[in-house]
Amino acid sequence: MSILLLLFAPGVLAIYWLIKLQIYLSRIRHLVDTYGMDRKKLQKLKCKEVKALKESIEKLRHTNDVLGLESLVRPYGA
């Protein structure tokens, strides 16, 4: 039983890592396509920072704060 666990554990971890990577790249792709941000500037950010940036942008969009949204997006503009 433990041999099977040792055989499948790296595969499960690899699948988990690939899913997290795809979610991270999807968030970056959404920000680039929707707001015209620079992909290279966004790739320098960590996964949690990209997630926080996207959440804050969505919160500003729902409150219709155009100036806040512009000031948040401008540093990452192309």
Written overview of the protein:
The chain has 78 residues and is mainly alpha-helical. 81% of the residues lie in helices and 0% in strands. The longest helix is centred in the N-terminal third of the chain and has 34 residues, at 2-35.
Topology readout:
Layout lengths: L1 H34 L3 H5 L3 H16 L3 H8 L5
Helix pairs in contact: 1-3, 3-4
Briefly summarize what is shown.
By secondary structure, the chain is mainly alpha-helical.
Largest beta-sheet details: none
List unreliable stretches of 5+ residues. Answer: none
Outline type = elongated
Helix/sheet category = mainly alpha
Radius of gyration: 17 Å
Number of strands: 0
Mean pLDDT: 90
Distance between the termini: 53 Å
- The amount of beta strand, in percent, is under 5%
In helices, the fraction of residues equals over 70%
- Integer tally of domains: 1
Helix-strand pattern, N to C? Answer: HHHH
How many alpha or pi helices? 4
Features:
single chain, 4 helices, mainly alpha, 78 residues
